[in-house]
């Protein structure tokens, strides 16, 4: 039974009373520090520039709002406080970021991941997407990728944590507003330019960064125009070990992995039965987890980012303002990957088992942490991704005041984001039946791989390797071609009215409509094996089509993609290399589209009054929205089906801000919210893999995730630059969407039996089926602390220092189905939720020099559910990143700058979690990937006029 609001508030006060008392003590200490200087009556009376000026503007904006918001503003013209928008956002309480290639990419707000956060650019909802390596993946859904944009293009970021009726629906976590610069932001002519050089200590590469902004106003300030441009390049090198999951042979339907085992160091071997019931040591080995593909990988990124913003503003009269804005960004992220790996541990089906195991160690959690093997197939792989993300937006805003009481705002605009990966190519070299191969994962961060010898030589000799077109010895060498593309488009229209009823009450009402079009496509070859004729060409002069790379203590040969293309033209799109698109089962789930139309109406009453002597302000309103969805997807090579869905939501909201003492605010907010299902989950089609016997499909009948949110904040503004706050939040999530795994015959999927042609399988064979379903939700609750304080009470130059600190603690448990039986669940954190996160910055600023050092911590969190091979979850381990920035003013117009990013070379450490008690697989931190991308040092010069 749902508790009334007043009961929840009392419960929250009791639960967090100790934390509140501690916060009030901090506030009292802050008051003591401030005794030597008067507290400003108006926090905008003191004007400070630079980083401290940015903090002052942010605090002032936060204080003015009725709702619970946080703001970050630019330090100067085209000079945002951080190198990356996501890295700026992590300084806000409750926000943690995920990095890709050492750079911030996506955000989590109060434990809710990117799919629960809406982003608006210049007031209009938008979606920016980019690609990523396999463990992070290309963004094929609603999450926003902040690394698409240069931070210098934006003037402010606003994070709206509580909901108001005037703000569009779609978020359980927050609405993030990104605002670019406008000419009326400045009094007249301004110009700023910057040039920087960025050095990465792992890639040993130096890359350029440039920025430029020019703005002016004419006709007595009634007309203004602005143009800003930012361009940068980034060349980094990322390396480390990975496993592509772990698995055991016991519960795999496609065959055991090991043929024989030895308990005497390989002197004698005992066969593992391929039929009947396993017992003893044979059972123990077959139940233990081994890495699916133990490997070392090295990735080279060649990135460039171009961003352009433009704005024209026109004020034909005091009552009317017209703003036309454009934004363009293109982010290129070409990536070359090289892997040295043992492939046969992942193989299933005919021809297995062949591998022998000896000198093995099995941990208490059921993991083969180290072992030696005979008859292992070793593979060298080169992969190249030609990736780009292009974003464009054009918007028009007309603000007009009809009378002293009535005004209106019309916003219309369109944006399009295209993530394009026209060349995703993988080619392999292979070596078969290697004796003496070993791995040792005793140190999971630095495992040891020994690739032994083949034909009497090691991996650094061409005689070790061959191109193979036959599967007689193992997997044939492959040419994998998987071009893909994702298009997103938003068309926005909104009309808002404001009517001042009197000095205390303002009525706001309006309507909006958003149209969202989405499609994604991928092509694949029906057979990826290299044809025999091309194998003969490549092996005839193998030195010509390979080259060496080094890393992790090895030098080895890798395929040379360009040389191979010149020889056999695998990109020609003809014959054996033609891609099959949706006709290929493995690609079908990624060939889908969706259309969504959201129509909303709202009414909101803003109030401002005094109760006794206590100022009270806020807003109360309701938003009504209708969602209409059409999704399409493939269920077979010839069947492209359509599903339609519509639903309505009524979303009331309340925000109240009370000022019982000067500059001390108590804020309360309550609202009903909703977030629409992930686009991939809504697809009516699916992806079939007949090798692993897995079918992954969608569910177009999913309801949105709905929640009732409560917030209670205490904020003390000690001065224009000092803020102490503590906030409590609770979200009662009514339902959740998760992927459920269950076993059923192929015939139950509803696919054509011809899909099994050539596999030797029948429609009665069991398949591992994965579909999203609506499940019971849960309660998410937590608190966040924020302290911003200049240390003006300290003596001497220490008066110019200050600190920012925030801490967030979140709790939310979800019952996940992790077994084919519905009765079996596992209680874990919400996906993407870090129970603890904090961010701390120490800064110094005087009239010439400014410097700061920041640390950002994020607790471990779960990334995905049921990723395959019997695993329950993928996750990412805790991170602690250190960044720094400094500047020195040579003159009022020229400034030297320095930035240091990822100063400790923090690793991207991802893990796999198991809870298979029946087989003893209970390892919670099996290595998925451990990679490092180096430190980035940026030196530059800024000029402004």
Give the class from helix and strand content and strand pairing.
Answer: mainly beta
Helix content: under 10%
Average predicted confidence as pLDDT: 88
Low-confidence stretches: 1-47
The total strand number stands at: 47
How far the N terminus sits from the C terminus, by CA atoms, comes to: 63 Å
Work out the radius of gyration.
30 Å
Number of helices: 8
CATH topology: Maltoporin, Chain A
- Bulk shape: globular
Strand content: over 45%
- The domain count comes to 1
Please tell me about this protein's structure.
A hairpin with a 4-residue loop joins β8 and β9. The chain has a 22-stranded antiparallel β-barrel. Strands 13-12-17-18-21-22 form a six-stranded mixed β-sheet, covered by helices on one side. The radius of gyration is 30 Å and the shape is globular. It has a single domain, classed as Maltoporin, Chain A. By secondary structure, the protein is mainly beta. The termini are far apart. The longest helix is centred in the first third of the chain and has 17 residues, at 17-33. The protein has eight helices and 47 strands. Helix content is 8%, strand content 54%.
